[in-house]
Design goal:
The protein has one domain: Aldolase class I (TIM Barrel, Alpha-Beta Barrel), CATH 3.20.20. The chain is 35% helix and 22% strand. The protein is built from nine helices and nine strands. It has helices spanning 52-60, 63-66, 83-95, 115-123, 138-145, 150-162, 180-190, 209-215, 229-239; strands at 3-13, 21-26, 48-51, 71-75, 99-104, 128-132, 166-172, 196-203, 241-242. Helix 3 (83-95) runs parallel beside helix 4. The radius of gyration is 17 Å and the shape is globular. The chain starts with a strand and ends with a strand.
């Protein structure tokens, strides 16, 4: 039985997929996003190991709170670093008719083996993907995450080909992702995808600063303020939709 390390779980979450969700935050992530609000999930250090069966028991006991459209979401960190765990967990969920969702950056995606075969197996048991567009171009993506966006774009395209539903979230960060040029590039990319069911613009916030201080990590955006109302309204008007 596969296992993974997790940092925390939430029994009652309302922003991590449709309805009320129980969310497990797995450890490990190849990105180092400037505005990451879960730096404690970058590595497995401090995480707790859990098997797929125990994770199912932990999360599914909150099923009475989900009502008709809730379910289980696996977040991180980066869930796709734990493919065997995800497949086993979501297979258990589907046997019980539970809605499944993965909140992923897309960073580990590749069409090479063994990943792609496992990913295709995972798709059988996954109802929805939540994905961020960190930046619409390679240069800015490198600045924000420290990594290329090649794998991310490939995953967006692959899910579109397979017609797997996705929700997209876009973090509006002053001086980084709030220019009209970048916003229009983002809109143009989203318009190439036919499987997007929802786009949400999220305002950057520095609320994770205490976590960085506790971990002894310098917070890279300490001099960046939250976006103003006008900038946020413009971005929402341009990008947001639900269908």
């Amino acid at each position: 039985m596969a296992s993974a390390f997790y940092s925390k779980f939430e029994s009652f979450a309302s922003v991590d997929g449709p309805g009320v969700r129980s969310v497990l935050f797995l450890c490990g992530c190849p990105f180092r996003c400037l505005y990451c609000h879960n730096p404690e999930t970058w590595t497995t250090k401090g995480g707790k190991e859990i098997t797929s069966e125990d994770a199912f028991k932990l999360l599914s006991k909150y099923k009475p709170y989900w009502k008709n459209n809730g379910g289980i979401t696996i977040s991180g960190g980066e869930p796709l670093l734990h493919m065997d765990f995800l497949i086993e967990l979501f297979k258990l969920c589907k046997e019980k008719g539970i809605s499944t969702c993965i909140d992923t950056s897309g960073a580990p995606f590749t069409k090479e083996e063994p990943f792609i075969s496992k990913f295709n197996e995972l798709l059988k048991y996954t109802d929805l993907f939540l994905m961020d567009i960190k930046a619409p171009n390679e240069e800015l993506h490198q600045v924000i995450t420290g990594k290329s966006n090649k794998n991310v774009l490939e995953m967006f395209d692959y899910l579109n080909e397979k017609n797997i539903p996705i929700w997209i979230r876009y973090v509006l960060v002053p001086k980084y992702t709030d220019s009209k040029e970048v916003l229009n590039q983002t809109k143009d990319f989203i318009n190439t995808l036919g499987n997007v069911k929802r786009v949400e613009v999220l305002p950057y916030h520095p609320f994770a600063l205490p976590k960085y201080e506790e971990l002894g990590i310098e917070y890279p955006l300490k001099d960046i303020n939250m976006p103003d109302k006008e900038s946020l309204a413009y971005a929402k008007e341009l990008l947001e939709f639900e269908r």
